[in-house]
Amino acid sequence: MRVGRDVLLAIIVAVMTAGIGFITPSFVTPANLAGLFNDTSILIMVALGQTMVVLTKCIDLSVGANIAFTGVIVALINAAHPEVPIPLLMLVAAAVGLGLGAFNGTMVWLVGIPPIVVTLGTLSIYRGLAFLASGGTSIVGRQMSPAFIAVPRAEFLDLPAMSWIAIVVVIVVAFVMWRTRIGRAFYATGGNPIAAVYTGINVGRTQFIAFCISGTIAGFCGYLWASRYTIAYVDIATGFELEVVAACVIGGVSIAGGIGTVPGAVLGALFLGVVKNALPVMHISPFWQLAISGAAILGAVIINAGRERRRTGRLILKEAVAS
Amino acid sequence: MNQQALAPHVIPDRVVGRFDWWKRWELLLFAVAVAIFIFNSMASPYFLNPYNLSDATFNFTEKATIALAMALLIICAEIDLSVASIIALSSTAMGAAATAGFGPPVLVIVGLAVGVAAGAFNGFIVTRFAIPSIVVTIGTMSLFRGIAFVVLGDHVYRTYPEGFNFFGQGYVWWVFSFEFVLFLVLAVVFGVVLHLTSFGRRIYAIGNNPIAAQFSGVRVNRIRFSLFMLTGLMSGVAAVLLTSRISSTRPTIAMGWELEVITMVVLGGVNILGGSGTIPGVVIAGFVMGLVTFGFGLLNVPGIVQSIFIGSLLIGVIALPIVAGKIADRWRTR
φ, ψ for residue A232 (rounded to 5)? Predict the structure, then answer.
């Protein structure tokens, strides 16, 4: 059933892309599709981090603010010291993001504040810190070193480095979720926290780790964001957290925890990416984008709710047969 | 979260005695409000002026009006993230009606009706398909504002009829604006409904244990549905006030308000997981946020820095009693 849902979503995205390509052939050229994937890369990566958090019954609303803060920090470092190598800057971005995620996680794990409250608070705090760090100014392209801008654009096998990074992140996250103890712990924690405790899983620590990973990915994407749009200021990625949650929800990740897959989240992000990129090509006013993604979220959750309800009924029968 | 899941379920609003922490909560919050008030009046000579203070109320009355209904919804263990988008939709409808030449009474009816309809839509999807309200309202948040964008694009509705500006700019008596008086009246009404009627008790019952409430004869889904409609209505009221105050409608109107409204409710001591919270707490939280915004504004502190303070306040005010309790526990067991 779980595979079925992802396949269904893949078919929807494929049919949508093909349909748009039928009307506007230029949309389905390999170059345009590669560009679409590259445009959606950041959304895909952050949505995967969010998937882990949501799987453990939590939510991270601070990812947009995290991107803004780390983006501003690395851009400032780069503007002041262009000699700092880019890999080190990437490491700094990931470390800063990890710190912000760890703060969220600590508040949830050790203090026991509901995640939505914590990240609602840190959403304001991190963006405020981005303002304090930048002093309200923007760091624009000409202040950045050429390497800072060039690295995510460096092409390898006709795909920009940014896309390759996204592909690597998808593979690593998929491996973690399917083949490692912590990955399975995410599912166990969200599926039934009480059972997870009796299984020997430290539920709070698992949630903490999910927040750390989500924060790290968001922080790393802070660098990518600043580099891709060649600007870093306090308002970048405003409202991005809701786009990320939307990608997860369309991808079939249950907000109640315990249900969701890596391909699902990736497809959910790609769905939003296709919609965003198709509107200008089809000469539809870009103002339609928000309404369409809203309708898509509602459609996806209503379909998923129906499927989940049916699935529970069948699962009991299957287990009875198996035993 | 796991601690709450494993702990025996207490009904915080019924606990009486020394560890009656929710009562201390409002006291704590009130102390914070007084401290901010004293700090502000010492920091700026312009603060203690009835006209300036009256202006300050405009900063929060519209959000606090929605927060009253949102408090009921969150106590009922639901949430509505689409309130700001309902404002956008409702304001757009009023703008269209005003452009078509209708007068203030029709505009108000249109604004409120769109709010109720949007709230009913949320409530219908949540109750009919049994989907978590946070997901549904993330969807409708995009949908409602999306419709406003589709209708308006990059246009602005600017023409509103004579007399419509009373709701957002008029004064009832001396420095008391219509908005502020309306908010106080609504606060009393909501307080009475939540704390003194059986309807209010049922909201707590659902928030604490919806299944037990169902078996006790509470029509759970009907109450949920009506609370979503009520939140829609209050968003409609806020839309009327805001549109009248700024006399213009853009699709980006009230952007991001949903988070401020929820912050206000949580700061007011309402448990985000449902089941406890009070209207006086929410009202005090509204004043706290209004005073912070206004006082910092007088000191030329940028809005974004104020949000650091609000964010820290939100986490700090919740973390403080928990951390203090943990330290006290450790100290006692020694």
Answer: -135, 120
